[in-house]
């Protein structure tokens, strides 16, 4: 037994040692998309979708002949949603490939890797983070967000609320994390500017179960609308369940990471009427012509979650940036790729987003309000597309 | 007693490494450590730096848990103190790197002395819970003391700089972190040849007997906490210079469990155990990724194998605990013992 263990260890050591040899790749006619993708760990539900989305778009482009004679190559590594492993994946992929685009898995990773991106000057990055901080082209010149940042998501919700009920009372319920606190401070000002009254702000531990004290506070404040942020699901069902028992009449709303169809439907009957902001069309949406969604449905007949759409759109924006850079006869440097990305105006995403999109700063400030229909088990549109200026 | 190590002088008797074979291997190790950065790519250098940081912190925890017998789940929080101290000093004062790292160690040491106070009353699982409570308190401080810690957004650092040389790549950081870690490990190895280190071991083996022998428990338990936290603080400082972003979420409880697992898997109460444990815990997930990467599989299969890899990592840890409860260092000792008598007995 001991000898077997020793042999296994020796084999692992030899394998590990030889792995440092750089992989010989034909890099001349390739556009490489690297990715620290959370395929395992707490964020795997999103990572698996993101991975599939990028993979499918790359396949689609290559099947159509690539981009100006270049093929796309996608090089993912599992990050397990841990910063040290995400950075390790980045170092591994970038040291063995000439990477042009990179997908990061978290806000912490985006912040950590930013100096490396600036230093390398050869690639641009987007990722799973919608952090407001990333929407600063001076501080994060080579990053972008494939959608609205969290403050803009709140802005879209608040604009909708102001249209529906001018002067409404609003409650912000958020987790005590960087993610949860992200849009709160700036959104107070946005609400005030729209003539809304932020009646109460409640902060809870992420995933808190006992919310009875918070519900009592919410009941006293009697908000017309309650916006959750900084959670995936828990403690939203607990809030809604207890609020309904107490007869609290408030419209509950959520932001991107809560708004996947499968996540909302996990709430069961409590989901009925739940609303929120979503920057993309859902997989099943057929209310308007959407050739790209048709292709996705043809490739994958089963439901694909919103992280899939986000990954797919990210890859589409990488490809468009590369296409514009190559068409201008420029070198594929980070500065040129980002400039090409910033030149995107009224871009047709093939129905992934219901309106033509324009990149402003580092984000695409667009979204639509959806409402949960538990009988149909689907999120259905409750507003038109809202574009922030 | 090994062949050819008859000690003929007090100097020889006191030496940390006493045989020619050991000296030869040390020389080979030194050459390997010096040559490695020139041969390895950025990925392997990154991992080498990460391993160096983790060895420093695991060695610190080994002083406390492995040698003194005080179980702590606060190592990550102490690393956090060190990281924030370094980040704040760097950002606000622009103080020299080595001074920042020392300050990080000392501030973490002060934190360790406070957190160590309950160890006089409780031990075992009770002490572990007390250290978890301290971690929660420290996390709250990191998240809410905005003036110093920058709140939830944390602090972003500029690269470490010594004599105008910016340590902005893993290659350069390697030359900073590896010598510091070697110094710390050598310090720990020597500690257990002194009165203080032997007092720690006596407390671990039976604290009441140790007190009867004249070892003041208050002083030595707090000293053990302080030293352990100092190591964590310096490791946290290196971590801050390495990742250059420090947030409250950088040092979660799971990281403390990681270090405790490294101490146990490597072998509690041995210097080599802490090193091997830190290397194992850091490198095995990456090695498993490499193995999966070499298999002729599609990208979809990689996706399926990701959770399998996590399971294999868990099974490996459990396997070591069951089949080699004395840890990786025991395997190493057996290999050495085999060669001590080689070729006379195999």
Automatic annotation (TrEMBL), chain A:
<keyword id="KW-0732">Signal</keyword>
<dbReference type="InterPro" id="IPR028082">
    <property type="entry name" value="Peripla_BP_I"/>
</dbReference>
<comment type="similarity">
    <text>Belongs to the leucine-binding protein family.</text>
</comment>
<feature type="signal peptide">
    <location>
        <begin position="1"/>
        <end position="26"/>
    </location>
</feature>
<dbReference type="Pfam" id="PF13458">
    <property type="entry name" value="Peripla_BP_6"/>
</dbReference>
<dbReference type="InterPro" id="IPR028081">
    <property type="entry name" value="Leu-bd"/>
</dbReference>
<protein>
    <submittedName>
        <fullName>Extracellular ligand-binding receptor</fullName>
    </submittedName>
</protein>
<keyword id="KW-0675">Receptor</keyword>
<feature type="domain" description="Leucine-binding protein">
    <location>
        <begin position="30"/>
        <end position="360"/>
    </location>
</feature>
Automatic annotation (TrEMBL), chain B:
<feature type="transmembrane region" description="Helical">
    <location>
        <begin position="70"/>
        <end position="89"/>
    </location>
</feature>
<dbReference type="GO" id="GO:0015658">
    <property type="term" value="F:branched-chain amino acid transmembrane transporter activity"/>
</dbReference>
<feature type="transmembrane region" description="Helical">
    <location>
        <begin position="222"/>
        <end position="242"/>
    </location>
</feature>
<feature type="transmembrane region" description="Helical">
    <location>
        <begin position="124"/>
        <end position="142"/>
    </location>
</feature>
<feature type="transmembrane region" description="Helical">
    <location>
        <begin position="21"/>
        <end position="38"/>
    </location>
</feature>
<keyword id="KW-0472">Membrane</keyword>
<keyword id="KW-1133">Transmembrane helix</keyword>
<feature type="transmembrane region" description="Helical">
    <location>
        <begin position="173"/>
        <end position="192"/>
    </location>
</feature>
<feature type="transmembrane region" description="Helical">
    <location>
        <begin position="44"/>
        <end position="63"/>
    </location>
</feature>
<dbReference type="Pfam" id="PF02653">
    <property type="entry name" value="BPD_transp_2"/>
</dbReference>
<feature type="transmembrane region" description="Helical">
    <location>
        <begin position="95"/>
        <end position="117"/>
    </location>
</feature>
<dbReference type="GO" id="GO:0005886">
    <property type="term" value="C:plasma membrane"/>
</dbReference>
<keyword id="KW-1003">Cell membrane</keyword>
<dbReference type="InterPro" id="IPR043428">
    <property type="entry name" value="LivM-like"/>
</dbReference>
<protein>
    <submittedName>
        <fullName>Inner-membrane translocator</fullName>
    </submittedName>
</protein>
<keyword id="KW-0812">Transmembrane</keyword>
<feature type="transmembrane region" description="Helical">
    <location>
        <begin position="254"/>
        <end position="280"/>
    </location>
</feature>
<dbReference type="InterPro" id="IPR001851">
    <property type="entry name" value="ABC_transp_permease"/>
</dbReference>
<feature type="transmembrane region" description="Helical">
    <location>
        <begin position="311"/>
        <end position="328"/>
    </location>
</feature>
């Amino acid at each position: 037994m001991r000898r077997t263990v020793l042999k296994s260890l020796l084999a692992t050591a030899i394998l590990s040692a030889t792995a440092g040899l750089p992989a010989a790749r034909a890099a001349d006619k390739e556009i490489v998309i690297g990715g620290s993708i959370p395929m395992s760990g707490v964020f795997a539900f999103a990572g698996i979708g993101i991975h599939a989305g990028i993979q499918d778009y790359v396949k689609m482009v290559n099947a159509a002949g690539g981009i100006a004679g270049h093929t796309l190559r996608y090089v993912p590594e599992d990050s397990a949603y841990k910063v040290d492993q995400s950075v390790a994946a980045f170092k591994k992929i970038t040291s063995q490939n000439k990477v042009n685009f990179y997908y990061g898995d978290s806000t912490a990773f985006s912040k950590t890797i930013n100096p490396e991106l600036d230093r390398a000057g050869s690639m641009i990055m987007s990722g799973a983070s919608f952090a407001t901080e990333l929407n600063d082209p001076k501080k994060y010149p080579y990053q972008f967000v494939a959608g609205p940042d969290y403050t803009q998501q709140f802005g879209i919700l608040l604009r909708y609320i102001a249209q529906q009920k001018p002067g409404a009372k609003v409650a912000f319920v958020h987790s005590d994390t960087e993610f949860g606190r992200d849009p709160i401070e700036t959104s107070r000002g946005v609400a005030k500017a729209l003539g809304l009254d932020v009646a109460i702000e409640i902060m809870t531990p992420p995933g808190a179960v006992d919310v009875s004290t918070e519900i009592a506070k919410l009941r006293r404040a009697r908000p017309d609308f309650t916006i959750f942020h900084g959670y995936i699901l828990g403690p939203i069902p607990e809030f809604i369940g207890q609020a309904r028992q107490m007869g609290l009449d408030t419209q509950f709303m959520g932001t991107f990471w809560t708004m996947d169809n499968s996540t909302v439907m996990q709430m069961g009957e409590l989901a009925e009427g739940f609303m929120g902001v979503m920057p993309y069309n859902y997989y099943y949406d057929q209310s308007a012509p959407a050739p790209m969604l048709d292709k996705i449905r043809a490739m994958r007949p089963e439901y694909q979650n919103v992280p899939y759409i986000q990954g797919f759109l990210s890859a589409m924006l990488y490809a468009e940036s590369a296409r514009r850079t190559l068409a201008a006869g420029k070198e594929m440097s980070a500065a040129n790729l980002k400039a090409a990305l910033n030149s995107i105006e009224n871009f047709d995403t093939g129905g992934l987003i219901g309106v033509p999109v324009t990149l402003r700063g580092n984000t695409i400030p667009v979204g639509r309000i959806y409402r949960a229909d538990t009988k149909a088990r689907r999120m259905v549109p409750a507003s038109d597309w809202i574009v922030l200026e | 007693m090994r062949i050819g190590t008859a000690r003929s002088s007090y100097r020889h008797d006191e030496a940390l490494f006493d045989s020619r074979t050991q000296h030869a291997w040390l020389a080979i190790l030194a050459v390997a450590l010096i040559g490695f950065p020139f041969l390895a790519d950025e990925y392997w250098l990154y991992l080498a730096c990460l391993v160096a940081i983790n060895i420093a912190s695991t060695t610190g925890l080994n002083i406390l848990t492995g040698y003194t017998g005080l179980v702590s789940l606060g190592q990550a929080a102490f690393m956090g103190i060190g990281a924030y101290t370094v980040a704040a000093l760097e950002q606000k004062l622009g103080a020299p790197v080595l001074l920042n790292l020392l300050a990080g160690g000392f501030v973490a040491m002060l934190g360790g002395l406070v957190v160590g106070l309950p160890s006089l009353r409780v031990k075992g699982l009770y002490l572990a819970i007390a250290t978890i409570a301290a971690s929660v308190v420290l996390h709250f401080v990191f998240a809410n003391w905005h003036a110093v810690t920058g709140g939830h957004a944390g602090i972003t650092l500029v690269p470490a700089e010594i004599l105008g040389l910016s340590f902005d790549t893993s290659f350069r950081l390697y030359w900073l972190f590896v010598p510091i870690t070697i110094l710390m490990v050598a310090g720990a190895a020597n500690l257990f040849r002194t009165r203080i280190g032997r007092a720690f071991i006596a407390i671990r083996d039976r604290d009441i007997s140790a007190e009867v022998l004249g070892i003041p428990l208050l002083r030595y338990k707090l000293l053990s906490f302080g030293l352990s936290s100092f190591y964590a603080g310096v490791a946290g400082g290196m971590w801050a210079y390495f990742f250059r972003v420090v947030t409250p979420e950088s040092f979660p409880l799971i990281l403390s469990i990681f270090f405790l697992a490294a101490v146990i898997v490597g072998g509690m109460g041995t210097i080599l155990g802490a090193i091997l444990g830190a290397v194992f815990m850091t490198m095995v997930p990456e090695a498993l990724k490499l193995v999966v990467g070499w298999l002729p599989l599609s990208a979809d299969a990689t996706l399926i194998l990701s959770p399998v890899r996590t399971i294999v990592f868990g099974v490996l840890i459990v396997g070591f605990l069951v089949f080699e409860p004395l840890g990786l260092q025991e395997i190493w000792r057996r290999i050495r013992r085999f060669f001590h008598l080689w070729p006379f007995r195999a």
